[in-house]
Amino acid sequence: MDVVIYPDPSLRRGGAKVETFDDELKETAKQMIEAMYRQRGVGLAAPQVAIDQALLVLNPTGDPADADQEMVLCNPKIISKKGKEWGEEGCLSFPGIYGEVQRATKIVISYQDLDGEEKETRAEDFLARVIQHEMDHIDGVVFTDRFSSVEKLRVKPKLEALEERFKTNA
Ligand SMILES: [Zn+2]
Predict the structure, then answer these.
(1) Is the N-terminal amide bond of 60 cis, ω within 30° of 0?
(2) What's the burial of 88, exposed, middle or buried (CB within 10 Å: 0-12/13-18/19+)?
(3) Is residue 47 part of a domain?
(4) Annotated catalytic sites, by residue?
(5) How many CB atoms lie within 10 A of CB 82?
(6) Does residue 3 fall inside a structural domain?
(7) By residue range, what is the domain housing residue 102?
(8) Could you tell me if residue 18 is inside a domain?
(9) What's the pLDDT tens digit per position in 29-75?
(10) What's the predicted TM-score (pTM) here?
(11) 143 CA distance to ligand 1 centroid (A)?
């Protein structure tokens, strides 16, 4: 399972609602977690591996030894949010690009687990940031969309280099 790199069109396609909670879904989630660790990420959304489903995996420590902190969210929705804070983010689909994004500091989300069971959880600070970043992928939104205009200008040459590389490899 490979992570797609900007400007791969999968990133804009987003993810449709997960309807079938079967072994295939569990296997997909397992492979996504492996790919996330392999790439030293803290989160990965299905559109980033060219799967158009509302599925995301994360571990805020990024350390496979902390398997107890892994989360798999199907069909996540934000129920409420509080506070706003700018913080630096990166993305496995944008190698070498980092920038400040404003996110809510406290969120309450609903989601379904891999068995389709409805759950609710709250998250703060970094974990809340990771969840919001990955949820954006499900909507076909990428973190550079949320950069300030100054930041957008700053990363433009790097984005163009990735676009050039995509064209060459296509
Ligand atoms: Zn990302």
Answers:
(1) no
(2) exposed
(3) yes
(4) 134
(5) 11
(6) no
(7) 10-169
(8) yes
(9) 999 999 999 999 999 999 999 999 999 999 999 999 999 999 999 99
(10) 0.96
(11) 7
